[in-house]
Structures are given as structure tokens and as C-alpha cells.
Amino acid sequence: MRITGLATALALTGALALAAGTPATASAPVERHAKPTIVLVHGAFEDASAWSGVTARLQREGYQVFAPANPLRGLASDAEYLRAALAGVSGPLVLVGHSYGGMVISEAAAALPSVTALVYVAAFIPRAGESALALNSRYPGSLLGPDTTRTVDYPAGTDLYVRADSFRTLFAADRGAAEAAVAAAGQRPIAPAALNEPAAHGAPPAPAKYALVAAADRAIPPAAERFMAQRAGARTTEVPAAHDLPASQPGVVAATIERAAR
Q: May I ask which residue range the UniProt record assigns to the signal sequence (predicted)?
């Protein structure tokens, strides 16, 4: 069959497009909205491995995840370290903090305009002038104290650890004894001064806030977590669990982070 005129032109255009791997009638590409980077900040007496289950779930859903080491040396310096670690990360950010990590993400977010949401996981949500220790003492119920902790003095300062025989009761009651013992052995200590240092800024008002309250928490009183979440206007979910939600309830935590990211 002989093809002439317009038909010939259309046939040639289609053949060339197929050869190039592009459609015959090209249109401007539609860019999908980029997912935010999820930043997971651990608290005292743990390290970034506490987020492993959460990280795996978020990565399977296509999120970029960054779980930096939190120095646990002082609130201002810890927040500055986090801001510096995020200097090379472009695009929107969702900051997630567990326990003392809530203090750090609140302080860091004040100077990070790319933060679109803050997620507090059994965490402190401070206002300016408040310290973690003051907030923890506001309501009864915390077992954190001299009977459950020990200090290590060294030339540059003092570190605070949870005693190995108290770690499961205080921190990891939802985990088996063997798993809690492993976590206790590898815990990352905090400088006591960090718990006493008041926030300079507190949680900024603009980003959306989400909070998970651990109803069986023995490190931060659940009443304190409820109070801070309500005061901050956070969308709050209560979980019948102990303090270490990232390790014991990674599915619940990841689901909350995804809600915040969307």
C-alpha cells in the first residue's frame, strides 16, 4: 500500500518517536510533589539504632530517611549539631523526636524554615525557658532518678546512664528481658546538664505537630506528655505502651510519621 501526503508525515513522525523511545505527541512532563525527608532524632539512653524498624518501614514507602547521632551534650549544642547535619539536605523536612529528642527538634526547627511538620514520640514539647527536667517533674509518675541511674565522672564532665537492672522497667517494659538487656548494654549516655538546660525558643508555632503519648511510660509521665501535646495543639494519639515506642511500636510510629508527611 502506498502512503502519501499527511499520512506519510504522520507515519514518519510515529516511527521516529518510537525509535527515540518518546511518544509522537510530547507534552511537558508533570512533576510529582517530592516527599519530604524524614529526620529521626533519638533521645537519651539510646542511639539511632532505636529507629531501625521505623526507618525500614519508611524507606519501603519511598521516603528518604536520615537518623543522625544526637550528641546528648547540651540542648543548644545538640540543636546546632542537628541544623549543621541538615545543611546539605534540600527540600521539605519532617522532624521526629523521641523523648529528649523532642527538645532538640523543637530548638532546631526555629531556624529551619523547610520544616513542614514536627512529630513527638513520647517526647518533650517545650516552650521557651523550659527544660526537660522541669517538664518531667511537672507531674508524678517518672521513675527517672538517683535510684534508677548512675553517673560517670571524667575529665571533661559527667555522663548519666540508666542502671542496667532498671533499664527494662524504666525504658523498655514492652520488650523481652534479653532484648532490653542488649539495649541497656549499648545505651548512649546524656550529660545531666542537657536535661537542665532551658529551651531558647521552644516548638515553633507554624509547622503541623503530631504527638504519640505512651500511656504506660515510666520515664516521662503520660500526664506530662498529654499536657505538652494539648498545649502545643498537636494531633495526638495515645498508645498503651512503654517509653521506647520507636523500638517496640515501629509500625504505629511510622504510620504517624506518614500522616505528618502527607
A: 1-19
